[in-house]
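pinned: reference chain
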Amino acid sequence: MQYTQITYETRGAVAIITLNRPDRLNAWTPTMSAEQAHAITAANSDASIGAIVMTGAGRGYCAGADMQDTFQKRLSGTDPGDDTAGGMGGLPRGLDWVQLIRQCKPIIAAINGPAIGVGLTMSLPMDQIIAEPQAKLGTGFIKMGLVPELASTRLLAARVGLGRASDLFLSGRVITGEQAFAIGLVDQLCEPGKILEHALDVANSYAANPDLQLSMIKSLLTENLVESDLTEVQRRETRLLTKCWESDEHKEAVAAFLEKRPAVFRPHID
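pinned: its structure tokens
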């Protein structure tokens, strides 16, 4: 696929996906989501890649859906993408964003500017949300006569609690990265202008670990987030733990410890 609204690059064991419509603060379109999904799939297929960072070009992360290319087009009777009417949350048919993000390699949202509407909800299922203190985050759906999507009514509440999620959704208010960090919406703050550097450090700390177990842990977190039966939680953990005991990754970790050397879990990258 030739990308027109994102860029894709790799730095060592980390793939960087940059939303690339800086003249519109990287406003989202269905085309952008298809390109994002393609890039994430490419990173997942690359054995040398261990983690993914998503950020925005210029002054913004993603200022929400493009008014002209999504909302106005739909109101005029034209589907703005590849059968978004038949998809979930306004995405092209067949693209389950939440499933994609929860099943992909560790992925970090590096929020360097406005993250509004879908700019925020696309990030909620990610493994870490990092933001600059002055970044602006908000839902905004209520202001547009819409309801939230991408499982955000569950995921935002899971991050910040029901009361705070209700306030953000029902008011449509915009908060700073610093305020978002204080309520648990943002996982880490970084120095202004240092967000990509900070995100790469975090991503590399994940990429140093084995893909199989990274995937297993993400699966357990996803399934057990809403599981009330602790016995079932333990059953799921034990099923995967048993597989780990027989894995090459576990054998390598034990051998490396006994031989007093770093474990090697992915191909060497010059």
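why pinned: The radius of gyration is 19 Å. The first strand starts at residue 6 and ends at 11.
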